[in-house]
Amino acid sequence: MASGVARIIFRCEEAMQTQNLDLSDCQMVHIAEGVYHIMKDTEVKTLNVSGNVLTKVSPRLVVKFSLLRDLDISRNQIGTLPNDLAFLLHLERLNISSNCFTEIPECVFRLPALRELDASKNRITDIDNDDLKNAACLSSVDLTENPLTKRCIENLPKTGITFIHSPPSEEQEDWEDLNI
Questions:
Q1: CA 9, 11, 14, 19 torsion: positive or negative?
Q2: How many CB atoms lie within 10 A of CB 164?
Q3: Which of 41, 43, 56, 130 is least enclosed by beta carbons within 10 angstroms?
Q4: pTM, whole model, 2 decimals?
């Protein structure tokens, strides 16, 4: 435990110089209040909390790290995001891969500067095209290894955004045929 805390403190101190806070693979269940306190006078541009055991993203992250350009929350156990995430006005890259999302949260599409979204390796089956219309800057969405329905894939917009996805499995197609 003490070595984990020491590692987090070391990484915070390093981020004070680089503006890139890497808290990946620290076995965190949440971002401790001490992290926010240590980083209070630092304009963090990149935050990586991948490979932890987070189940949610606190709205406090948005307040304390409001200048983020790159946020990586991959490889956790997150299934939802706070609506306040849309207030990250400078966020250009968001990685939510390898989590528990069944849909892309609506707040993601309201991020005004978001260009790249990695939502691969989740449980997403469908995308709301109306939400996509709100994503003014979005240019790339990675949906590989999600159980997208054939209908969803066929309905993805053909212009403006590059979608990367896996083809639907035969098993999925068989289940879709049963839908009436």
A1: negative
A2: 12
A3: 41
A4: 0.91
